[in-house]
Request: fold
Amino acid sequence: MRREGSPFTGTGAVFAKEYADHIGSARMRVIETLVVIVGVVVVWVAMRDLKDKVTQDQFIFLRLFTYAPETQPINFAGLLTFLIPLIAIGLGFDAINGEFNRRTMSRVLSQPIYRDALLIGKFLAGLATLATGLIALWLLVMGGGLIVLGVPPGGEEVARGLAFLVIATAYGGVWLAIAMLCSIIFRSAATSALTALGIWLFFSFLWPVIAPAIFDGILPLIAPQRVLAGGATADDVAGLLDVQQLIMRFSPTVVFQEAWLGVFSPDQFTDQQIMRIRLDPRLGHRVIPGAPLSFGQSLLMVWPQFTFMVAGAIVIFTLGYISFQRQEVRA
Reply:
């Protein structure tokens, strides 16, 4: 049968209903409370140490996100690297199977709403909820920094903060898509949540350990003979670094870490970033050695990571969409 009307009819209604449910749910309030408490504690500790360095650092507000004292194991941006997936999984692990378990799926689809609109509306509502929480948390950090440090943030610092919000939302979209895919495949909410959490644990903690071993195993197969003999050129090193990074970037966590480091640390570079700056014609001839990257140059540095996260979210969402379309819905 040929469908009549737009497949997106009803997306707005689903989005509004799901967004209101997320914002008002007890689950979301508990998650947001924990995130705010932990985030405020981490940033407050950083503020106390940075207060004496206001006149010495032109990116003092950015340090609120990246600075970690010796007594603190992680900075604020690193904390969000682990908290954002947990929030996204909490929003999406029962998005679809919850409807089946409550026996409301057939009632919803009996309305003039296609499955396309239902799935897209739920995904956008979860993403909007996540973005709302991130914006509130970012404003809280910036406001606290303004009060404690006593100086306003510069225009470039605000722009970098907004860029980080976009990148963090895309990162959350990847994990939200994974959680919804698990929710589509498994009818049990507990199984769905455990599977999504297992994927997160694997890519966040195990993959950074496994990836170097994979690279070492394939190095004799991909490296030119002169590299193995100790005569590597700059192009050879850059090529091998790209392969190593490509293997590491199968983890969304690694990609997000690279992205926020590129946005929040314009004057601190990894070996891979230094090599890219030297070889990239868009950057190499415009970068002054020892000087921080401009905002535009930082965006060029993190654009591949951002594109990867958006593409990953789309691919995973598409897999869930195909699986959902093939499922049978009974009254």
In short: Confidence is low (pLDDT under 50) at residues 281-289. The first helix runs from residue 11 to 24.
